[in-house]
Structure formats: C-alpha cells, structure tokens
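lol forgot to send this yesterday, sorry. struct tokens for the thing we talked abt
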C-alpha cells in the first residue's frame, strides 16, 4: 500500500510543470528562469511567449530570453543548462513559387533588440522539410539544440511546437523555454537643494558682486 501511494505521488508530481527559481546573471544584471515541459504540460513557441509575458519578478515583466552576446549565451548554456529550450527569436517565412522552397526573411527578437549576434549550428537555420509530412509547420522559431554540438554552435530553427513526425509517431525536440527578466533602468533622482542652501549661495553671489564694484 505504501509503495502504491508513493508511486501515485511521484506520478502526480511528474504531471506538474517544472518552474525553476530565477537565476541572476552578473554580466548584465538580468535574471533567467528555466521552465520545463512535462507529459501533461507542453506549450508551443507562441504559447510560451504569452506565458513568459504574463510572469513578473521583482516588478519586472518577463519575456522569452533574447541572446545578444557570447557572455549571455554561455551563461544560459553552462549555468542555466538551457539545452533544448525555446528562446525569444522568430522569423517570417515566405514560399518561393519559382524555386518551390521556403525562404527565411529576417530573424528578430521578441523585444525588438538587434539580432546582430548569432550562434547557429552548422547549416542552420535550414528550414528542414518545411511544409512536408516530417515538418508540417515552418521552422520560424529559435531554440537551443543539445550538448552534442555545443562547440560548433548551439542554435536551431524549429517549428511552432518543435515537433517532427517519425515512424513511431510525433516527437518533440524542445523540452522547455527560458524566461528573462531585464531590470528597468531609471536615471538617478537628485534631491533638490534645501532653501537654506539657495539663500547661502545667493548671499555669496551678492557679496562677490559688491566686492567687484568696490574694487
């Protein structure tokens, strides 16, 4: 009976999504949170984007992580262990009737930041089998791939729910997503000088002017 209850508890616990606590990145002052899918809780990229946008940490709204430097990339890969996770990059594809191929247009970040840094796997983004039975949706979304390729690039383009069709059925390649919390930087507020300080300064200025007239 005890074994049965423990088994039931483990099953229930495994059914809930895994929400890690935010981890601080000292190189840019941002916090990152890894969310892991389960058999009973899985989001596609758009759903993960909406989910991240509804989260807050220390008064700051979250968003799918944007990776704009090597330092940030290394932090997510080595410290957060974000392999196999959705990131906040996306593309808009178009179909070329002349070539019969789907073409990438311009990769973007969900925050509107410049997409100037990249760490693609060799040959990626490749729009693998877009629109085919193997990949029903276009590969317009960014994810981290798996550790085997960490030294030669980490990024992979994938379709909306990171799925592919195999002989044994559907297979998902993304295991979760990364949420980023960027602090809101505000300029320092300088306290106004007290009235006595203004009076003192005015007195000095008046004395200096009187001295100039008598000199």
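and heres what i got for the seq, position by position
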């Amino acid at each position: 009976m005890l074994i049965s209850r423990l088994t039931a508890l483990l099953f229930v616990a495994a059914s809930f999504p895994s929400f890690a606590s935010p981890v601080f990145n000292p190189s840019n002052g941002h916090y990152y949170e890894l969310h892991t899918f389960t058999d009973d809780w899985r989001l596609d990229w758009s759903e993960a984007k909406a989910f991240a946008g509804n989260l807050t940490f220390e008064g700051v709204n979250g968003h799918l992580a944007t990776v704009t430097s090597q330092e940030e990339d290394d932090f997510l890969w080595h410290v957060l262990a974000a392999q196999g996770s959705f990131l906040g990059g996306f593309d808009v594809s178009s179909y070329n009737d002349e070539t019969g191929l789907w073409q990438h247009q311009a990769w973007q970040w969900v925050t509107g930041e410049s997409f100037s840094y990249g760490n693609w796997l060799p040959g990626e983004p490749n729009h693998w089998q877009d629109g085919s039975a193997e990949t029903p949706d276009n590969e317009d979304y960014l994810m981290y791939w798996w550790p085997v390729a960490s030294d030669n690039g980490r990024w992979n383009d994938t379709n909306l729910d990171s799925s592919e069709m195999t002989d044994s059925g559907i297979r998902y390649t993304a295991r979760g997503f990364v949420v980023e919390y960027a602090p809101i930087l505000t300029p320092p507020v300088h306290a106004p000088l007290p009235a006595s300080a203004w009076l003192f300064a005015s007195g000095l200025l008046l004395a200096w002017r009187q001295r100039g007239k008598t000199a």
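Residues 69 and 117 are 6 Å apart (CA to CA). anyway ping me if u want another try
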